[in-house]
Amino acid sequence: xxxxxxxxxxxEFPRQGLGTTNGSFLTIKTLPNDLDFSRFGIIISNRxxxxxxxxxxxxxxxxxxxxxxxxxxxxxxxxx
Length: 80
Known about the structure:
80 residues; alpha+beta; four-stranded mixed β-sheet
């Protein structure tokens, strides 16, 4: 489980001045921060599934993957 310190409050994430990478299933937005670690936020659309249970299950799996891969991720970014 990813600790709260690494989770990004999505409401604070600006809409302008972002680095964006698009894929067929995933869009990643990055913004530099002034911290010694990176923070992560995940937004899953209703198009994936209308039921919140399945969207939350996917969100937990993605946060689990991020926590296992934390050593290989460059620090100092907000990643959405």
